[in-house]
TrEMBL record:
It comes from Roseburia amylophila. It is an enzyme of class 6 (ligase). This is Bifunctional ligase/repressor BirA. Acts both as a biotin--[acetyl-CoA-carboxylase] ligase and a repressor. The lineage of its organism: Bacteria, Bacillati, Bacillota, Clostridia, Lachnospirales. Residues 65-255 form the BPL/LPL catalytic domain. GO terms for cellular component: cytoplasm.
Length: 325
């Protein structure tokens, strides 16, 4: 009920009468009054004027199932949302839900996570009220060998969503980080449960440094936040919605071919590594070269002094010669 009333207040250009809300949702005036008061307690600024009705005048940076549902414009993502004030890891939580039968497009969001998962098992902790920690459950008809490319699809969606919400240019550091001015602001981790030729489920986890005011000394050189880069606080719910709207668009184009042929040029245009000297940290034999973009399979093309090499994301890390990017 609260999400529906929030959506109705947002859609209105002015006041919405209590009677109109009653008739629209088939509830009593008392139920509407209670929902409005609960929304006020949640932090929403709602003006009530006798004989005119209710009007929303201020929306703080609130993360909740009601907030996310009330602004949702996506087609299939987020029809079911699980929100937690705190959880261990949204990827872990989403994997459990997927195994229990959660549907394609289910979204898991947390204000804080204390056992977040990064690439190669690295931890990812957080403070409340500062970041976005979310995971999307996918159950596509997809060959398991193509699943890793969804990380690149997600990267494109996040970069575009950030630019939409902040006006800042967000670039992709191949394959799974988003950077602004050479510093990491987003990490993406895609995990899969599959049979030999069948995907049980895929979870796409995204962590965004949004309103962080500082970082520990050991990562401050390479990490940043949208707040630190723009000087402005960003509404996290609005950014979440923007990311998933973009993801639906890119996902459909990816699934049409189950590769990146239709996205490759756009991805390369956002690639922070493109044309840059990079060091490929291959555990077998590290090497240096110049990144030239990606293949239709999402491999990084690296020209070395002796040959052109294709780098797969699951095998290695890539770093800039003179810094993080």
């Amino acid at each position: 009920m609260k999400a529906k009333i929030l959506a109705a207040l947002r859609e209105a250009e002015g006041y919405v009468s209590g009677q109109e809300l009653c008739e629209r949702f088939g509830v009593s005036r008392t139920a509407v009054w209670k929902a409005i008061n609960q929304l006020k307690k949640d932090g929403y600024e709602i003006e009530a004027v006798q004989n005119r009705g209710y009007r929303i005048v201020g929306t703080p940076d609130i993360l909740s199932e009601n907030e996310l549902s009330s602004i949702r414009k996506t087609d299939w993502i987020g029809k079911k949302i699980y929100y937690y004030d705190e959880t261990d890891s949204t990827n872990v939580r989403a994997s459990r839900l997927a195994e229990e039968g959660a549907e394609h497009g289910t979204l898991v969001v947390a204000d804080q996570q204390d056992a977040g998962k990064g690439r190669r098992g690295r931890g990812w902790s957080s403070l409340p009220g500062t970041g976005i920690f979310m995971t999307l459950i996918l159950k596509p008809e997809l060959n398991p060998s193509n699943a890793s490319m969804l990380t690149l699809v997600a990267a494109m969606a996040v970069a575009k969503g950030i630019t939409r919400c902040t006006g800042m240019e967000a670039k992709i550091k191949w394959p799974n980080d988003i950077v602004i001015n050479g510093k990491k602001v987003v990490g993406i981790l895609t995990e899969m449960s599959a049979q030999m030729d069948y995907v049980n489920h895929i979870v796409v986890g995204i962590g965004i440094n949004v309103n962080n005011e500082s970082f520990p000394e050991e990562i401050a050189q390479n990490a940043t936040s949208l707040l630190l880069q723009s000087g402005k606080r960003v509404n996290r719910a609005a950014l979440i919605e923007a990311v998933w709207e973009e993801f639906e668009h890119y996902y459909d184009r990816f699934m049409a071919y189950q590769d990146l042929r239709d996205l490759r040029k756009e991805y390369d245009a956002s690639l922070a590594n493109k044309g840059q000297k990079v060091r490929v940290l291959d555990p077998k034999e590290p090497f240096d070269g110049v990144a030239q973009g990606i293949t239709d399979r999402g491999e990084l093309i690296v020209d070395t002094w002796e040959a052109r090499k294709l780098v797969s994301s699951g095998e290695v890390s890539v770093r800039g010669i003179y810094g993080y990017v």
